[in-house]
Amino acid sequence: MADKQFDVSEAIVLYLKKYPGKNTDEFESKYGFEAGVAKESVRALLDEAMRVNPDWSTMDLNGAGDFVESVMSERHSDLTAKALTAIGNYYTYQMR
Asked: Whose CA is closest to 32, among 9, 3, 5, 8?
């Protein structure tokens, strides 16, 4: 997707803005015809984050969320701190 015309960090933050509620209208309004591609990019990153395996014998839920943020930061250095925090919060919500 080298030709995408949107900032994936911004898309992540907007997609998760009302999580666990949906933010479909605002997301689609912002990205228009690219909303589908933007959503696919966001979902791919969130799915990747959910496959990270923290060491639950040494981490609590908050520590695991921080670990996921760290791993995703290493894998995707272009993600902003705000996007990484949103991913970490998504992860901890899913794992609680």
From this structure: 5
